[in-house]
Amino acid sequence: MRKPRDYDAELKALEDKARELKTRKVQQLGELVIATGADALTADELAGALIVLAETTDAGKREVWARRGVAFFRSKSRRSAPAPDRNAGGTPTQPGVAQPASGGAGAA
């Protein structure tokens, strides 16, 4: 005879796993904010900037941001360098990239 499945136990295990994944995601996002130096911003400033980023549909801007993100994660000095040094010491395209991205928004 077959053993009946314990749906309640399976559901609880799935809920626990989902909670663990959500907790890990929140922790990693917090670590990212700190690593990028964005923890120096107020919560209002950070929320406003993230809203603008989330609302942006311009594929060109998103591609530029993705390249900067890749460069950031490849940088070995990101954890020890202060925020201004980190921005200036990254890939050569970083300082010039910020200007066209914001300039493109004004022109659009």
Summarize this structure as a short list of keywords or feature phrases.
disordered C terminus, elongated, 108 residues, 2 domains, 5 helices, mainly alpha
Account of the protein in words:
- The structure is a single chain.
- By secondary structure, the chain is mostly helical.
- It has 2 domains: 7-55; 59-108.
- Helices cover 74% and strands 0% of the residues.
- The chain contains 5 helices and no strands.
- It has helices at 7-36, 43-55, 59-74, 83-88, 93-107.
- The longest helix is centred in the N-terminal third of the chain and has 30 residues, at 7-36.
- The protein is elongated, with a radius of gyration of 20 Å.
- Residues 83-108 have low confidence and may be disordered.
Number of strands: 0
Helix content percent band: over 70%
Q: Describe the sheet with the most strands.
A: none
Number of helical regions = 5
Output the helix-strand order.
HHHHH
Percent in strands: under 5%
**C-alpha termini separation:** 69 Å
Structural category:
mainly alpha
Mean pLDDT: 79
> What best-fitting shape do the alpha-carbon axes yield?
elongated
Query: What are the segments in which pLDDT stays under 50 over at least 5 consecutive residues?
Result: 83-108
Radius of gyration (Å):
20 Å
Q: How many domains is the backbone divided into?
A: 2
Secondary-structure map:
Blueprint: H1 7-36, H2 43-55, H3 59-74, H4 83-88, H5 93-107
Helix pairs in contact: 3-5
